[in-house]
Design a protein that fits this description.
It comes from Urochloa decumbens. The protein is mainly α and about 500 residues long. It has helices at about 1-15, 25-35, 45-60, 65-75, 85-110, 115-135, 140-150, 155-165, 170-195, 200, 210-215, 220-235, 265-275, 285-315, 325-370, 385-415, 420-450, 460-480; strands at about 20, 245-250, 255-260, 265.
């Protein structure tokens, strides 16, 4: 009898669910209410995130096919072997600018909201991408790329926004959107850059040499991207804000504290949340910081590859390259981007669901090391055989890179609460951008160096180039193990 009474008394406690309170006029609460009422995938919001992130990708990827020729035409390099050196600094300037300001933009997004930061970032893309296409000398190109990065806080803000508009079970899909839009950027960007750069030479009937496109041969691809940015900027009028704007009073150290979450009607739960999350230092969050380091290593590899691959592919065969044209490289990147889109949409979510982000990252790191070993031998191929092998290898390499990057993003966003998410993603973008700023500079310097050692006995020319990239992937592999990588409680290494 007593035991039955105890069971009857305990049952209501197990069934009790705190009442959720939504504050009127709070955009974050409005989003939470919509998520609670419909637990399906928010396809329309996902598409808007995807298309906005494409704006970030296009100015980066569009210069890959023509940067080698742009540096040549700006006449800053005294020798052919030095083109890669100067190209590296142009590629790094955007990332350096982004590295210096991304944490600041993340803090702004946590303070005033995601939407204003996103819209301002698109506006700066529109302005400085146009000016880059009108560069009259090397230093103008360098400065406009730097400003393009430093005044743009889109990337970290979008990553935070992506996980805030959907349920936790859809976070992997949400973050993979960043990779799929990059995939489309790899299709459209290099295609735009490869086919529209130097239009007076390729399409003299449409673009006479005495037109503005004759004076500025790399303006047309930038202009096309600028028009796209303008259209997307107008579409952001309908972008929904996700930041919570209501305030809770707490009679302790601070009078008022903005908390970005849904609240139950229990004061005890609210106070516990504030105590655990308010003013928690991101730098002391070991799961966050260790996953950011993994992110930086993978981003360094990805950016170094994107810088080195077109330089290597377009350089003359006498220097260990493939002797391809900008159109050929643009086509390779386009096919690669298409493969990333298909992989991230249909394959990656299932892989990470079965294996988990950590195990997936380990397999990817080993596979990438094996693949990079095969690149130097492609110089012995030609014709259709070279084209087929190069496209397959590039597609596999890019998919391996975005896999480990997306896995690290999942670990990062699982390591923080919403009130710190934009700042955390801004911090990740800052550190990642530093690594991506170093990658083109280092890649350009190494590329120029290996071109001068074609006859070396140990790892001559391009063999040394890809061997050094293998070392970086080995470091990524090591970082996926303890004690380097700490996992948040809700993640699993399996």
């Amino acid at each position: 009898m007593d035991s039955n009474s105890e069971g009857e008394a305990a049952a209501p406690l197990l069934e009790h669910k705190p009442t959720v309170v939504y504050f009127e006029g709070c955009p974050g609460c409005a989003i939470d209410r919509e998520k609670a009422e419909s637990r399906g995938i928010p396809y329309l919001r996902f598409f808007h995130i995807w298309i906005v992130n494409l704006v970030v990708c296009l100015p980066i990827s569009s210069i890959f096919p023509f940067l080698y020729f742009m540096i040549r035409d700006l006449r800053i390099a005294s020798r052919v072997e030095d083109i890669g050196f100067y190209a590296g600094f142009v590629g790094a300037s955007l990332m350096l600018g982004r590295a210096l300001t991304s944490t600041f933009w993340g803090m702004i997004a946590d303070r005033i909201g995601r939407k204003p930061v996103i819209m301002f970032g698109i506006l700066t893309m529109l302005v400085f991408n146009t000016l880059f296409g009108l560069s009259m000398n090397y230093w103008m190109a360098l400065a406009t790329r730097f400003l393009l990065g430093s005044l743009n806080g889109l990337l970290g803000c979008l990553r935070a926004y992506a996980v805030e508009v959907c349920q936790p079970e859809h976070h992997a899909i949400a973050l993979s959107l960043i990779s799929t839009s990059w995939a489309i950027g790899l299709i459209l960007g290099p295609s735009i850059g490869g086919y529209l750069a130097q239009p007076t030479e390729k399409y003299p009937n449409l673009f006479p040499s005495n037109s503005i496109f004759g004076r500025f041969p790399y303006f047309l691809p930038c202009l096309c991207i600028t028009v796209f940015c303008f259209v997307i900027l107008l579409s952001c009028v309908w972008l929904q804000e996700t930041l919570h704007t209501h305030e809770l009073e707490k009679q302790e150290d601070r009078a008022t504290k903005t908390v970005n979450c849904r609240f139950s009607d229990s004061e005890e739960i609210v106070e516990q949340y504030i105590t655990l999350n308010a003013n928690k230092s991101l730098f002391k969050n070991l799961p966050l910081m260790s996953s950011i380091i993994l992110f930086c290593i993978a981003a360094f590899d990805d950016m170094a590859y994107m810088e080195i691959f077109p330089l290597w592919a377009e350089s003359d065969t006498s220097y260990g390259g493939l002797g391809l044209l900008s159109e050929d490289v643009g086509q390779v990147f386009a096919i690669t981007g298409g493969s990333i889109l298909l992989y991230q949409t249909f394959i990656y979510p299932h892989i990470v669901k079965i294996l988990g982000p950590v195990t997936t990252s380990r397999i990817v790191a080993v596979s990438s090391m094996v693949l990079l070993f095969t690149y130097p031998w492609m110089t012995h191929l030609s014709g259709y055989c070279l084209s087929i092998v190069l496209n397959i290898a590039s597609a596999i390499k890019a998919n391996l890179a975005v896999t480990i990057i997306t896995c690290s993003l999942i670990l990062q966003n699982n390591s923080v609460s919403q009130d710190q998410r934009a700042t955390a993603n801004g911090l990740a973008t800052t550190l990642m951008s530093f690594s991506k700023a170093v990658a083109p500079i280092g890649g350009g310097i190494v590329f120029s160096w290996v071109q001068k050692r074609q006859q070396a006995f140990f790892l001559p020319g391009d063999q040394m180039l890809f061997f050094l990239m293998d070392i970086n992937m080995f470091l990524a592999l090591i970082w996926t193990f303890k004690p380097f990588l700490a996992l948040p409680e809700q993640s699993s290494s399996s």
